[in-house]
# Entry
Amino acid sequence: MILIDGKKAAAELRAELKQEVAELKAKHNKVPGLTVILIGDLTPSQIYVRNKEKSANEVGLKSEVIKYPDSVEEKIVLEKIKELNSDKTVSGILVQLPLPKHIDKQKVIEAIHPSKDVDGFHPMNVGNLSSGYESSIPCTPLGCYLLIKKFEPSLNGKKAVVVGRSNLNGKPMTQLLLKENCTVTITHSKTKDLKAECLEADIIVAAVGIPELVRGDWVKKDAIVIDVGINKTDKGIVGDVHFEEVSKNVKALTPVPGGVGPMTIACLLKNTIDCFKRSQI
Ligand code: GUN
# Structure
């Protein structure tokens, strides 16, 4: 079994992006800028945002974090987004989720101009991705896709099973695999026989948020398995895949942590640079 090293792949991607930022700076005399809005004081969100800022600085991006208290009014946030939309030094805007209950997530997502939507959550980007047009692609599925492609460059005709149908992961993942000519099955909590579906798969992407759901006898021996799960349990953080069992039975697997996670942040930087490049045309 080969362990797919997301930490290493992310470091390689960051090195490439750093080089690209230096070239863009030489060409345009400016660097791409990422602005993150963080509302409230949820610890995981604070950690994510700190890591995003650190990585952005590392590759040479201009990075800014705007913080609001949990009680901030929705209209203040929407006004700020409007201001950032017309700020030429800002290439990408990300509003960290989840949001406090009194703020309408969809309104916030739709307020971000699609050309600065580094999350790829705006309906315009969702539509463009599903139509096969150029778009921002959500960072986690993009990271999964790059890990799969690095391991297996041709996915033509492969059977892929995506476990989970979220807008954040499952649905965009399906689009990316379809674009690569995979035959994709998207499964979810109401799927009749999930084990039987997974046993058909050359590629499994597990993104449901159920600890160790995918077991050792659910996988083919030459399968590639990508674990998107980050689940807090009594025995620590585990993925959606039972690592010990599945690692004995497949060709390749991503660990948790150190698999998809590091790639997600690197892809956010990539998306910011891509938004910048599109804005310079
Ligand atoms: N919170 C957890 N994951 C994400 C993400 O990919 N984007 C945003 N904006 N918030 C998140």
About this structure: The chain is about 45% helix and 15% strand. The longest strand covers residues 33-39. The chain has a mean pLDDT of 97.
